[in-house]
Amino acid sequence: MLEKHSCAKHAHIKRMLENRQYFVPAYYQQVFCPFTRSTSRSESFNSNFKDYVLRKDTIETFIRQYELFQESVIHIENKDRFLSNEKVPIMWGYQQFERHAAEIYTRAIYTKFLTEMMNATAFGVREIEKDKKYELKRNFEYENLEFDREIFTVHVDRAAEQFDCECGKFDRDGILCCHILRLFTQFDYLKIPERYIVARWTREFREIQLRKHKIDLLGAQSED
Ligand SMILES: [Zn+2]
């Protein structure tokens, strides 16, 4: 790549390329790029993505194809989505907001949500400032840790039902992190607040969008 872009002699650029795994994830931390950030997956992500996008594509096509690609990634991970949509989702625990999640989310997202629910039980809560600031400390070393660190601070506005966790998972993946879910348990939440329901991850919206994408794609092909 350095030779292709005539940068082989630039020591700084060479070093940046070598260290890209350290700063690229940090740079994109707040960017919505669901479930595709692990290094092991990035290779397949790149090769798969090439199937969806051509060099001559316009930005508009690029974005549309990217959305299709996301759909497909989640499909591959959860091949039984259409089948399982008809079944009653399996509850992991007995909390009201979990039932709410089972009702609204697609099976794929609900499965990821359940993992967060389970991980949430590994955390203890320390109140720093009532209804404003909480510290979540991991007390159990579970498998497949998404974050190495043990302590996370969550800023809260109880009246507005706003929760900002420094892990930034919601901004990236569009689902709540285990730290915020742990606080939902703490506060006896019955439902997931509206502001934390990303429409594209809901059953209802997803089916409508998939239909729309197919029509858009067929329309675009027929024009060519
Ligand atoms: Zn978090």
Automatic annotation (TrEMBL):
Any single biological process term in GO: regulation of DNA-templated transcription
UniProt-listed InterPro entries: FHY3/FAR1, Znf_SWIM
Primary location class: nucleus
Alphabetical keyword list: Metal-binding, Nucleus, Zinc, Zinc-finger
Family: Belongs to the FHY3/FAR1 family.
Native organism taxonomy: Eukaryota, Viridiplantae, Streptophyta, Embryophyta, Tracheophyta
Function: Putative transcription activator involved in regulating light control of development.
Pfam families to which the protein is assigned, alphabetical: SWIM
Coiled-coil ranges (or none): none
Record flagged with keyword Zinc-finger: yes
SWIM-type domain segment(s): 152-188
This protein's record includes keyword Mitochondrion: no
PANTHER family in UniProt: PROTEIN FAR1-RELATED SEQUENCE, PROTEIN FAR1-RELATED SEQUENCE 10-RELATED
Gene Ontology MF, one: zinc ion binding
GO cellular component: nucleus
Location(s) in or outside the cell: Nucleus
Protein name according to UniProt: Protein FAR1-RELATED SEQUENCE
